[in-house]
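Cross-posted from the bioinformatics board.
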Amino acid sequence: EDQVTQSPEALRLQEGESSSLNCSYTVSGLRGLFWYRQDPGKGPEFLFTLYSAGEEKEKERLKATLTKKESFLHITAPKPEDSATYLCAVQAEDYKLSFGAGTTVTVRA
Amino acid sequence: EAGVAQSPRYKIIEKRQSVAFWCNPISGHATLYWYQQILGQGPKLLIQFQNNGVVDDSQLPKDRFSAERLKGVDSTLKIQPAKLEDSAVYLCASSFKVGYGYTFGSGTRLTVV
């Protein structure tokens, strides 16, 4: 069974304090690893898809990286508007998405 | 491009009552998904449609949950009778083809008391 574990569960940062979120996974035949952002009362919003080990993608203050066992989401110099829950999901050979429980990030001004 | 529309946004019912949720996907998206997200957990797939046919309903509690997608567009998810553990956010998502370009709606928050 595909498994996705995210750590930490919660992260409190001061504005400008960079940090990383971890997503470790086991999956039968990885097609892609997805990162989503979820704000309270809203559905997940797509951020990145990574397809192979060594791949990196960036968007504003966010950078996602992928290895064979885990992915990292780096937040550089975060702002309060980066506060959200970040979800990681793996897509298996059958295209099914399995989500982790998420990391809730709070950035204080 | 309009997003995935869901209604209602919130619903409170008593256990053993029935409830229905509605989803209108992005125009042209053939694949539609219903997910259940319990507080503090990631979304879990309940059912996946390709046009108006069911592709995967392996995690749908079929004794109480049902879903349909008439004419390959809108979809309805029903729970009858509801249990306390059904309290969750029900998310609808659509994609232009299986496994690509998922877009999620804002969800329906169900509270069963």
